[in-house]
């Protein structure tokens, strides 16, 4: 009986908080679509200095990732590697020819943009990729770049989170990925969560939106929590004594 209980505990189920590393490749070409591993990024020569390479939090079934990936996590064992194959209908959708539009080049010039093939552009709130540029006309594909593609995830489930403090720190880390979540001091007292913010957050862009997102995630997944308090403190630096 003890062995079966251990097996159930180590298997991922819907609603679990799990920390994963992965490399996602387009099945047809082997091209990397996304990844969390710095060493792989360097090996494949796609490393970016401004990239963030660290494991990601998945709340299985929450919809933060494509449906096929989250569904594929269910039943995997913690601490083991696996491959998840995601077809277009459970990934980024099928390609829709109706989403390929011809836009007058003057629309780009109004915004001071010189259109070029391969350029990503936003038109009327929709993001697309320029395919061709001819005299006076620009052909733009508003399909997702991975639409119609089957994605293969090589995934390693590092950990299942069971402690509330760990879960909340992981939620913070998801919203503020450039800062180590261990730098945040988190306390749960009755129906309140207090989050002491490190100095690194003060100069971040859109920090208020990030805080709203963190609070929203906590309220959704911890129904016993009524309030989330962010503590921002700047401590006077002691002057060094003259020698």
Structure overview:
Helix 5 runs antiparallel to helix 6. It is globular, with a radius of gyration of 22 Å. The chain has three domains: 107 residues, Chitinase A, domain 3 (Roll); 45 residues, Thrombin, subunit H (Beta Barrel), CATH 2.40.10.330; 81 residues, Alpha-Beta Plaits, CATH 3.30.70. The protein has 243 residues and is an alpha+beta fold. Strand 10 and strand 11 form a beta hairpin. Strands 1, 2, 3, 4 and 9 form a five-stranded antiparallel beta sheet that branches. It has a four-stranded antiparallel beta sheet with strand order 5-8-7-6. It is 22% helix and 31% strand. It has six helices and twelve strands. It starts with a helix and ends in an 11-residue tail after the last strand.
Q: How would you describe this structure in keywords?
A:
five-stranded antiparallel beta sheet; Alpha-Beta Plaits; 243 residues; Thrombin, subunit H; alpha+beta; 3 domains
Specify the CATH architecture of the largest domain.
Roll
Structural class from helices and strands? Answer: alpha+beta
- The share of residues in extended strands comes to 25-35%
Number of helices: 6
CATH class of the largest domain: Alpha Beta
Radius of gyration: 22 Å
Helix content: 10-25%
Shape: globular
> Main β-sheet, in a few words?
5 strands, antiparallel
Oligomeric status of the shown chains?
A: single chain
Residue runs with pLDDT of under 50 for 5 or more positions: none
* Number of discrete domains: 3
By DSSP, the count of extended strands is 12
Q: What is the terminal separation in angstroms?
A: 69 Å
């Amino acid at each position: 009986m003890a062995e079966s209980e251990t097996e159930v505990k180590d298997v991922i189920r819907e609603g679990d908080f799990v920390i994963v590393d992965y490399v996602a490749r387009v099945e047809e070409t082997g091209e990397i679509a996304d990844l969390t591993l710095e060493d792989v990024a360097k090996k494949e020569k796609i490393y970016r200095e401004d990239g963030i390479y660290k494991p990601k939090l998945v709340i299985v079934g929450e919809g933060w990732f494509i449906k096929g990936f989250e569904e594929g996590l269910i039943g995997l064992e913690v601490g083991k590697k696996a491959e998840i194959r995601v077809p277009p209908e459970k990934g980024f959708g099928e390609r829709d020819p109706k989403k390929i539009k011809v836009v007058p080049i003057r629309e780009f010039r109004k915004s001071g943009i010189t259109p070029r093939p391969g350029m990503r552009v936003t038109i009327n709130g929709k993001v697309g990729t320029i395919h061709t540029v001819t005299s006076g006309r620009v052909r733009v594909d508003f399909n997702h770049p991975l639409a119609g593609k089957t994605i293969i995830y090589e995934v390693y489930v590092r950990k299942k989170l069971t402690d509330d403090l760990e879960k909340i720190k992981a939620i913070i880390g998801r919203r503020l990925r450039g800062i180590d979540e261990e730098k945040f001091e988190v306390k749960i007292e009755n129906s309140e969560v207090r989050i002491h913010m490190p100095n690194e957050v003060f100069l971040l862009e859109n920090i208020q939106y990030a805080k709203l997102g963190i609070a929203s995630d906590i309220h959704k997944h911890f129904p016993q929590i009524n309030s989330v308090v962010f503590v921002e403190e700047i401590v006077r630096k002691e002057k060094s004594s003259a020698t």
